[in-house]
UniProtKB/TrEMBL annotation, chains A, B:
Coiled coil ranges: none
Designated name of the protein: Sulfate permease family protein
Lineage: Bacteria, Pseudomonadati, Pseudomonadota, Gammaproteobacteria, Cellvibrionales
SUPFAM superfamilies in the cross-refs: SpoIIaa-like
One BP term from GO: transmembrane transport
Length: 574, 574
């Protein structure tokens, strides 16, 4: 871990790096203004809070994070989880919504920094790829659905597919035509820009980079256009919800009040938000890092994100993390160092000071459209088919995560997904693949008798167990050996080929002792081969090696040759 | 699964089997009468209920279970768990205690039969040996401590070490001298019989079998003696708690009332009791079965135990399972078939009909002493040292289970134990052992360069990853490969030796694709060797094999030889 990773890039900072960073900062700032306002709305906090969460957190991550191009701030999934957690906690405690969101950011900061100091970065690895992408796809659907009410100009609420669907259906008759007009215009414009604008611009002679940059300004254009519409046609008077007065200036710094009852309600959600935010952020960081051969340090990243959330809480913001789309824009725009993020923060600060009066007439439907178009690109249901065809377990974990997230909400979804993927793994290891092996002719290599033409001997049964021997499969191991013994009446030796055995725990050790005892009674030798170093080290501290009626062979070839010739054997292990 | 396993042994039943079973039944009946009364007291139900739970459940298991010698009925740990679950549920719902215990047996029956039909027997494997024995040891301590109040003649309550200790200390001043006298007499007598009686009898010329049988009658003798004492000296008038009037006869058959609120409270405990009871029972069944080469079928055992609990619930009993000490007595006394259990059930039924008046003066202190001596033999704290010295993980799981069971109760203990052992396993697989391997001279066998004198080549790095590649270690895999690449500037080929890789899941597949992409950019070949059949089958359904810049070799020897000579390579896998 490095205490101040920024020292690395600050040392060699020069004018050409500055120029690149400055250009990237301008592009990202333009993209971030609508995004910050929209995700604030999604999280349920006032729009200016979205801007606050895009100033100091960027600076904090630039100083303490390890990715050069990651852009930190409000993101869709974490904003949705914030809304879900805060509204539940507020319903129970009656606390102020915005204060609770700030406290959530603070709790998340404490957890992230704590996990970083304890080097708990490995915890993120327990969210498998199917679980993360299933969760993000399903969250995207929930987010899009939750924003539909702003496009229709109706009120609706709910945290699951069914609640949202029912609520929308119940109110759809009250749809405001003007709002729908603005919303559909923004949706179509944004969707068109995303799909066709870049291609059209290139055809018109733009460079690819410029086209891609201009495409990113679409949300700003849609905002400007709909503000003009709302102002020009007095849409607010016709029932179109607008953002209204947004306070200018920067937030005063300070900590939220410590409301212990609120903390009690919020901490489990804070933990989930921290882990999900971390996983999302580090996978973006790693992907971008790999493209430029820059390493991201998993434990220091926890510190970096933790300080970003601390900065957010200090400046009245809500939970933030490294976002996919914003980081990709930053990267593509040529950002070279975290200085780009610091300059972006300055840009957003200027916007918060001087731009807010302009936002008065901004229709909420436009922000909702921005969110919907952004999150729909996260939804990847095609992965379901790909995952299922590669492995039923991965497919099942993915499907389970999607279904539970849609039907029972984001927190239940991610917890179920992790539990399901761990259970499926354990289930498979509890009934491991077992191969009876023989020697591939002309080699010293042993392979499955069912897949290869191999040499075997009637008095020797060589069993390769394709799994570590530990408690979930200890009983199964006994079954496997006894079944072979029952099947082969001529049997004189059983050799357990341990090339795939990475650990033998106490439960499996007892199973081996039982097997040894029983085979001894039957006059059958029990031997081990290819026992790995760490496993052998452990066995040497146990009683098994003394009790074993047979030998431990360095290689399966040696075991087979010596047992066939009836010769004595070495007692070696790696 | 067999629907009526009793058909197997009924077919060949004859007079000599009957004689053996009959003798065993008499011995087990004599042992079971005090045990049934004592465990009923431990579970908090009236004494006659202990007898009821030892009649029909034995018959049901004899017909539907698969162990020939397992003896089913009230056992210590399950009785303690029953007391804990029922008293909590009764406190919340205000239901009748005995009715709640019957309902618990019914719920447990439904769960066991359900798990049997779904073939969920494998679930028991997730309780590792350290967790089960830690749980039983700690439960033994809790049980002994909970019975101390009866020996002292005071009132005390609690479910954890601290609660019980505080409660006992608070009331110890009220100790009744007479009760203490009876209790200590029974304790010393029972402990002496257990340790010395057998040896003494053998010295006096008894056969070993007879001596061991006579030893088992100690609880009956202590009961008879203390009943005589209590009657002769009017101990009840001197404050010694006695069992009092026990209704004679057999229970009427019937189901408990379906109290949904009570079911809501009881079901999590019923699940734990079912799993713990099943694990205890099947491990006893397997141990005894192994001695006579008889197989116990894990899924059918669930049906057998489920029907025993159903029978218990039908006859006003409480949760039962296969007990260790009673089964060993049955086995040692020469029981050959489950008919022994049916005759034992008849014996207990006769006792329930005719013996209960005799029990009026039985001091509760005697029953408590019976329990204490029985459970202290379950406590094996020496395992802690043995487990720790064999493997830190097993030691930690064992210690965690013991500590949490003692401090937070039986249910928290077993849940924590299972979670801890699974977490420790996953943690280890998330940072697997990795060996750089070379060829052992004169063989085709590859071993760790740090442990063996082996042949390597500067342009080839052969990495053996000692774990399946799956989500917890997917990121680690990338780190390992990149670290080797960074360390070896001459590197031209990386070979991943997959002998220990039993599965490659989607997350690891993506990591491999990333590695392949990055090594391709660096001009380094990525090869796989010794990929197992099932793993290869999965890879063939993926994109990786097409994208891979290197080859898949049958053996590591082949990979090393061909890459060194610069020759082309086969694309085979087992």
């Amino acid at each position: 871990m490095q205490w101040f990773p920024a020292a690395q890039w600050l040392r060699g900072y020069n004018r050409s790096l500055f120029t690149a960073d400055f250009i990237a900062a301008i592009i990202v700032t333009i993209m971030l203004i609508p995004q910050s306002l929209a995700y604030a709305m999604l999280a349920g906090v006032p729009p200016e809070v979205g801007l606050y969460a895009s100033v100091l957190p960027l600076v904090a991550y630039a100083l303490f994070g390890t990715s050069r191009t990651l852009s930190v701030g409000p993101v869709a999934v974490v904003s949705l989880m914030t809304a879900s957690a805060v509204s539940d906690a507020v319903a129970v405690t009656g606390a102020d919504y915005h204060q609770a969101a700030i406290l959530l950011a603070l709790l998340s900061a404490a957890m992230l920094i704590g996990m970083g100091l304890l080097r708990f970065g490995f915890l993120a690895n327990f969210l498998s790829h199917p679980v993360v992408s299933g969760f993000i796809s399903a969250s995207g659907i929930i987010i899009a659905l939750s924003q539909l009410k702003h496009v229709l100009g109706i009120s609706a609420h709910g945290e699951t597919l069914i609640e949202l669907g029912e609520s929308l259906l119940a109110h759809v008759a009250q749809t405001n035509g003007y709002t729908l007009g603005v919303g559909v215009f923004a949706l179509l414009f944004l969707a068109w820009c995303r799909t066709y604008l870049g291609v059209s611009l290139v055809r018109m002679g733009c460079s690819k980079d410029l086209a891609s940059t201009l495409t990113k300004t679409a949300p700003v254009i849609s905002i400007a256009a709909t503000i003009a519409l709302a102002y020009g046609f007095d849409l607010a008077d016709r029932g179109v919800a607008i953002v209204g007065a947004v306070p200018s200036g920067l937030p005063s710094l300070g900590l939220p009040a410590f409301d212990w009852r609120l903390i009690e309600q919020l901490w489990p959600s804070a933990l989930l938000i921290s882990i999900i935010g971390y996983v999302e952020s580090i996978s973006v960081g790693r992907t971008l890092g790999a493209k430029r051969r820059q390493r991201v340090h998993s434990d220091q990243e926890l510190i970096g994100l933790g300080s970003a959330n601390l900065a957010s809480a200090l400046s009245s913001g809500f939970p933030v993390t490294g976002g996919f789309s914003r980081s990709v824009v930053n990267f593509d725009a040529g950002a070279q160092t975290p200085a780009a993020s610091i300059m972006t923060a300055l840009g957003i600060a200027l916007a918060a000071m001087f731009l807010t009066p302009v936002l008065f007439y901004l229709p909420k439907a436009t922000l909702a459209a921005t969110i919907i178009v952004a999150v729909m690109s996260l939804v990847d249901l095609g992965l379901l088919k790909r995952a299922w065809s590669y492995s039923k377990s991965d497919g099942l974990a993915l499907a389970g995560t999607i279904v539970i997230t849609l039907l029972a909400g984001v927190e239940a979804g991610v917890v179920t997904g992790v539990a399901l993927s761990i259970f499926l793994h354990l289930y498979h290891t509890s009934k491991p693949h077992v191969a009876i092996v023989g020697e591939v002719p002309g080699t010293q290599h042993f392979r499955n008798v069912n897949r290869h033409k191999v040499i075997t001997a009637p008095t020797i049964c060589s069993i390769r167990i394709d799994e570590s021997l530990y408690f979930p499969n200890a009983a199964y191991l006994e079954d496997v050996v006894y079944a072979q013994v029952a099947k082969n009446p001529e049997l004189k030796h059983v050799v357990l080929m341990c090339s795939a055995v990475n650990v033998i725990d106490l439960s499996a050790l007892e199973a081996l002792e039982m097997i040894n005892e029983r085979l001894t009674e039957l006059g059958i030798g029990l031997h081990l081969s290819e026992v790995k170093g760490p496993v052998m080290d452990a066995l040497e501290r146990s009683h098994l090696l003394h009790a074993l009626n047979g030998h431990v062979y360095l290689s399966q070839h040696e075991a087979f040759t010596q047992l066939q010739s009836g010769a004595g054997a070495s007692r070696l292990g790696d």
